[in-house]
Design goal:
The structure holds 3 protein chains of 3 kinds. By secondary structure, chain B is mainly alpha-helical. Helix content of chain B is 75%, strand content 0%. Chain C folds into 3 domains: 137 residues, D-Maltodextrin-Binding Protein, domain 2 (3-Layer(aba) Sandwich), CATH 3.40.190.10; 123 residues, Dipeptide-binding Protein, Domain 1 (Dipeptide-binding Protein, domain 1); 208 residues, Dipeptide-binding Protein, Domain 3 (Dipeptide-binding Protein, domain 3), CATH 3.10.105. Classes of the chains: A mainly alpha, B mainly alpha, C alpha+beta.
């Protein structure tokens, strides 16, 4: 059953807080955001690029809560700024792919016919290539760096959003209330904004939180291949891949970024689960 | 049925063409060139005449559009061109490595299904029990661990604590020595299958939950069928459809090669091939591989369609 | 029940698979991270290429572990007093892997090929003094030189000057046949995967004592480390000092460490402002604590070095310009150049080539920040890096350059204004040209030492490049592998003498 809009229900936040996964995800994501913002504005124990020549490869201690790396940089500070950078990559890439994908998917589905066909074929072209391969090619063209990483991930996820957005449009646009407003002469743009989008919102929101978790992993993968965020700028992926050679000597260098990534991905997944439970009408009421 | 398949297959041709044009255009924007990449730091030693003759040899001297159509003409005849790096026909190079990737993908998916489906069913049937909770925690972790981290840890544990490493760059084909081959493939397959098993589990669980709440399940139960039969005969069949969908997507992704896992486990698959081809600017090879990957994607989509009809009697393409 | 059986079957297959991984054959299993870029010995330039081709092909002379020139295909040689004629007496009874006999004709054909510009031979520039080649008999070769050229002899000790079969040159097959005279012959090669070598039973030297070498490319060095620990490989080439040092604490694996002559360097292109100002370059040199770069990037595994890394020519670093970090002086120099405000320096580094490149760049970045130079690190894929480097399209670059036993051969291409890479180096002056010219013709060893000492002092003072350190060359092996002698040039020709006592 499709709703015209969700405004009649209690607020999304309140419903989310009634859901176990949702609550856990929300708390973790908030925590992550706080750490990221602190890292971004530079409220860290040490400047994240400051090298302490005499304190190289120090294990966690009172002075350096999570130890120091090869350059004598404070791991905790780098993790905080890394949170900001990983978050930036994830948020930006998902924002781009979600808005662009939704635009393509919605208009294609709404306009239909040949336009739909062509647009979705174009999306298929991008979808038919594995994400990492696309990212590799894009990075080779533009050179590695944080913006390229964003773009690469955004391009890869756009077709997914286009598909997710298009599905509901196809069914909603044939429904009575849409046909009715059409007869009343409402403009297409208005119909899309007022009637179509609210109905595609639920799957899109769920998709966004999942895509955020994937893009964290993709960023880490690209960094592993040396194609992601570039040193010395910290990101969790960079820190994790930098640590591979010396993790035996200094296990904390691998442990903390790994935990950070796992928790980061976990929190977005939990939030996504919660949102799905709350927003997907078919599953509502089945969960305790 | 056949007609439907034929239609679907034809509809994929534009996709394949699109992929080839996209990649063809994209790699020509890539800085660095194959000849220099092949010769290394001192290609400056290369004389102009020599560079030209190499370019003629690899067909790099013509304008891009002409290069593209020459290439396309070759593709139609089953000729994907010549790899600069390997000095062999691209198709041969690809086909020599594809079995590794295919086997890896099949094993990973098998492991994921073998682990994910039972746990998913159990979680759904014993909804909100300890098993359900454990299953969910495990699946969340599975999704959250980057596979290169898991791979690194597995290799570390194997080599330091067990003093074994089945594959040390000496990959053996299954046909040659099945036992050896399986021992080499099992760890990378597990690494890949681990996170996918989490997806399978989650999908199975939610699909099962949905199906178990349906009216016909209540009817089946009220007929007096025992719970096991109800689940096997009625619920599972329907719950499997979304699982097939994600298996299709995952296979498409895995057949594109898994660069990182192949690098870490030193497996000679498509992923490593494409990674090296890109860094060495081996144009013909990059084009060939991407087309090949897109082709696989198309085949898998068709296969998924066929399997739907087999599993779900409601769908038919008569 | 069926399931149990299946599991048993799988397990047995599995253990069988593992068991058969250990065999007692006399083939050395060797792993490395990068593969050769080709099979033509004359055109290869990558370190990874030499590590294969030096086992297959042989030059007239070789270098021993002390970098002395020793016989290879030539048994003996003599320089005329005026250093204008170099006569080689060739080894007799040597055959190529295809069975053809090695004679003076092959030497002539090989050098004609190397000197032919069309070939694109990597070391051609080092042999331009060869005016003509005489062959009084089948086993004597006389190089007539257009000018005195003392460094020529050592310059011949490279795979880039290997002697190939004249018949292969004629048929144009040099790049594909891999037909050499070396201790091992190429049996098969799958790029980026495996290379099989078989022992050459007719090799003139002692050995080889193994039946062959099975070379495997394992792209990830931590996986090579794992394979060594698991005992599935016998021998490995290691590039990453971070990974190699992990082995030094492992009692079950032998790590061979030898000070290398390749050098890590920060190249400054003095052509464009502000690096065209001497003071700016000097300030950079003074502001960098080279030991710290070494400590960070290679965990201290190496030595801080001037331009010349080989023992016979290296100077104590105290004699070189500003080898002690001196921030006051650096700031003063910046002020003299009117650059107190600093500037942005763009540094290119190849991703993972060498593995230490990005660490070096980051250490330098932090250090130069102290004199207001903001370093922007551009990490590039190797092929893009090479492209831009050759085109001189960079402001500064982190590089690892190979060393040579003779200073002239090592630097003529960079610091002689006629050198083929002088344009990339981006700096030349008359002093350097004169020193290079006299270093080339001087025959007295002490006089040569003095010339090149002056060369080093002048070069470090002009600071077109900032020499950082020379690292170690690493190989690792199982304890049952014996007889390998590592070489400062990183050559693995020592594998010819290796024995396996599993």
């Amino acid at each position: 059953m499709l709703k015209k809009s969700d405004s009649s229900n209690p607020s999304l936040l309140r419903r989310l807080l009634r859901n176990r996964s949702g609550t856990a995800g929300l708390i973790l994501v908030t925590l992550y955001l706080i750490i990221g913002v602190l890292g971004a504005v530079g409220v860290t124990p040490y400047p994240s690029l400051e090298q302490h020549a005499r304190d190289r490869l120090k294990p966690p201690s009172v002075q350096y809560a999570l130890g120091t790396d090869l350059f004598g940089r404070d791991v905790a500070s780098r993790l905080m700024e890394g949170a900001a950078n990983s978050l930036r990559v994830a948020l930006l890439s998902v924002a781009i792919s979600a808005s662009f994908g939704t635009l393509v998917g919605t208009t294609a589905g709404y306009v239909g016919g040949r336009f739909d066909n062509i647009m979705m074929r174009v999306m298929d072209v991008f979808f038919a290539l594995p994400a990492l391969l696309m990212a590799l090619v894009i990075v080779s063209i533009l050179g590695p760096g944080i913006n390229t990483t964003v773009l690469a991930i955004a391009i890869v996820y756009t077709p997914i959003f286009a598909r997710v957005a298009r599905g509901p449009v196809l069914s909603v646009k044939e429904m009575e209330f849409v046909l009715a407003s059409r007869c009343l002469g409402t403009s297409d743009a208005r119909i899309i904004a007022r009637h179509i989008l609210p109905n595609t919102l639920a799957p899109l929101i769920v998709q966004v939180s999942l895509a955020l978790s994937w893009s964290l992993l993709t960023e880490a993968g690209l960094s592993f291949l040396g194609l992601g965020t570039q040193p010395p700028t910290p990101s969790w992926g960079v820190m994790l891949s930098e640590s591979r050679g010396i993790a035996e000597m200094a296990p904390w260098l691998m442990l903390f970024p790994a935990v950070a990534i796992v928790l980061g991905v976990l929190s977005f997944n939990l939030l996504g689960d919660g949102l799905r439970d709350v927003l997907d009408p078919r599953l509502r009421g089945q969960k305790g | 049925m056949i007609r439907y398949l034929a239609q679907r297959a034809i509809a994929f041709i534009p996709t394949l063409l699109g992929v080839s044009i996209l990649i063809f255009g994209a790699i020509r924007l890539v800085p660095g060139n194959a000849i220099v990449a092949m010769l290394g730091t001192e290609a400056g030693m290369l004389t102009e005449t020599q560079r030209q003759s190499l370019e003629v040899y690899f067909g790099l001297d013509k304008p891009p559009v002409e290069q593209y159509f020459n290439w396309l003409g070759g593709v139609v005849r089953g000729d994907l061109g010549l790899s600069v790096r390997h000095g062999q026909p691209v198709l041969d190079v690809i086909l020599a490595r594809f079995p590794v990737t295919l086997q890896l993908a099949l094993m990973a998916v098998t492991i994921a299904l073998a682990v994910g489906i039972p746990i998913g069913i159990l979680s759904a049937v014993k909804h909100n029990s300890i098993i359900d909770l454990l299953g969910r925690v495990l699946s969340l972790l599975g999704l959250a661990v980057p596979n290169f981290l898991l791979g690194t840890l597995i290799i570390y544990v194997l080599s330091v604590y067990f003093r074994i490493l089945p594959n040390s760059g000496d990959y053996v084909a299954f046909a040659e020595n099945p036992g050896r081959n399986l021992s080499q493939m099992i760890f990378p397959a597990f690494t890949l299958g681990f996170s996918f098993s989490a997806s399978v589990m989650r999908t199975t669980r939610s699909a099962m939950l949905e199906v178990l709440g349906q009216d016909y399940m209540r009817t089946a139960r009220s007929k007096g069928l025992n719970e096991g039969t109800v689940i096997r005969r009625h619920a599972l069949r329907n719950a499997l459809i979304p699982v097939i969908t994600i298996v299709g997507v995952e296979m498409g992704y895995l057949l594109g090669g898994t660069v990182i896992i192949e690098e870490i486990f030193a497996l000679p698959g498509i992923g490593r091939l494409v990674f090296n081809a890109i860094s060495q600017r081996d144009y013909a090879l990059i084009q060939g591989i991407t087309l090949f990957i897109a082709f696989n994607f198309v085949i898998i989509n068709l296969a998924a369609d066929l399997i739907y009809t087999a599993v779900d009697p409601r769908i038919s393409y008569a | 029940m069926r399931k149990v059986l299946l599991i048993c079957l799988l397990l047995s297959l599995f253990t069988f698979g593992l068991a058969s991984a250990q065999d007692d054959s006399n083939v050395l299993i060797m792993a490395r991270a990068a593969d050769t870029t080709g099979l033509d010995p004359h055109t290869q330039t990558a370190f990874a290429s030499f590590r294969l081709l030096e086992l297959i092909y042989e030059p007239l002379v070789n270098l021993d572990a002390e970098l002395n020139v020793v016989p290879s295909l030539a048994e003996s040689w003599e320089f005329s007093d005026d250093a204008q004629t170099l006569t080689f007496h060739l080894r007799q009874g040597v055959t190529f892997h295809n069975g053809a006999e090695f004679t003076a004709e092959d030497v002539v054909a090989s050098f004609e090929r190397i000197l032919n510009e069309e070939t694109g031979a990597a070391a051609r520039a080092n042999y331009l003094s060869i005016a003509s080649i005489d062959t009084p008999d089948d086993f004597t070769v006389i190089f007539n030189l257009s000018e005195p050229d003392v460094p020529l002899l050592a310059a011949l000790a490279t795979t880039n000057a290997a002697v190939v079969d004249s018949a292969d040159i004629e048929s144009g097959d040099v790049a594909t046949v891999a037909n050499g005279t070396g201790p091992f012959a190429l049996e098969s090669w799958v790029p980026e995967e495996t290379t099989m070598l078989t022992a050459n039973p007719n090799w003139w030297g002692e050995g080889p004592f193994v039946d062959g070498i099975d070379i495997r490319i394992i792209p990830d060095e931590t996986s090579i480390l794992a394979a060594l620990r698991a005992g599935t490989i016998d021998f490995a080439l290691m590039n990453d000092p971070l990974v190699a040092t992990l082995l030094s604490g492992d009692p079950t694996i032998v790590l061979n460490t030898v000070p290398g002559i390749a050098y890590h360097v920060l190249q400054l292109r003095s052509i464009d402002p502000p690096l065209d100002q001497l003071e700016v370059r000097q300030a950079i040199s003074c502001a960098i604590d080279r030991q710290e770069v070494l400590d960070v990037a290679s965990l201290g595994e190496g030595v801080v070095t001037g331009p010349l890394t080989m023992e016979a020519f290296a100077l104590p670093t105290e004699e070189l310009f500003c080898y002690e970090k001196d921030l006051d002086r650096a700031r003063e120099l910046m002020a003299q150049a009117g650059m107190e405000e600093g500037f942005t320096l763009d540094v290119i580094a190849a991703n993972a080539e060498p593995p230490t490149a990005l660490s070096e760049a980051q250490s330098i970045q932090a250090q130069l920040a102290e004199i207001n130079i903001a370093v922007e690190i551009e990490s590039l894929e190797l092929s893009v890096y090479v492209d831009r480097w050759l085109a001189g399209d960079f402001q500064a670059a982190i590089a690892l350059n190979g060393g040579r036993p003779d200073p002239y051969t090592m630097y003529a291409r960079y610091w002689q204004s006629t050198g083929n890479l002088n344009n990339v180096a981006g700096y030349s002056d008359d002093t350097l040209d004169e020193l290079m010219a006299s270093g080339r013709s001087e025959t007295d060893p002490q006089a040569r030492y003095d010339i090149f000492a002056q060369f080093q002092r002048h070069l470090t003072e002009q600071a077109p490049w900032v020499w950082l350190y020379a690292g170690y060359e690493y190989t690792a092996q199982q304890p049952y592998v014996t007889g390998f002698v590592p070489n400062p040039t990183d050559s693995i020709l020592g594998l010819a003498a290796v024995q396996l006592d599993r």
